[in-house]
Amino acid sequence: MQGPQGSREAQRPQGSQRPQRPLGRRRRPRGRRTLAHLLVLPLLASLALALGTPVQAVAACSGRPAKTVSFAKGELRVYKSRAYVCAVTVAKKPGTRRAMSVSLQARGGRPVVDEGRFTTRAGPVTVYALNRCVRATGAVAGTSGSTGWILC
Length: 152
Description:
Helices cover 18% and strands 38% of the residues. By secondary structure, the chain is of the alpha+beta class. Strand 1 and strand 2 form a beta hairpin. It is elongated, with a radius of gyration of 28 Å.
């Protein structure tokens, strides 16, 4: 039988009145913050879709824009980061499925291709191109655009 000196309550300093949590358990996030995330994020996503903003095309490639080639039914966008180049083909009027493709090739390498029937964009495709020229080609429903060798 333990006296008051052997129990846990007796070992706690006198000024501490806060109950101790068991080790290994975490506090749950506040209800208001979780509720706000559950309501606000879907609302923003639905608002972007309602306005017709192609959300996927905006965040497709990282890096700075290096070249943009417009053609009749779409646009080929090329982005460059330090060692990588990324390309995406975006339709001017998204909505219906149609044949789209994007191809990106570093000099001395094989082309990386994404092709199929898409509604908004084809790609992104990325190649390692540190100190190399690249060329990109994009097509939407039979019309195409190409860059030739760039970023040399």
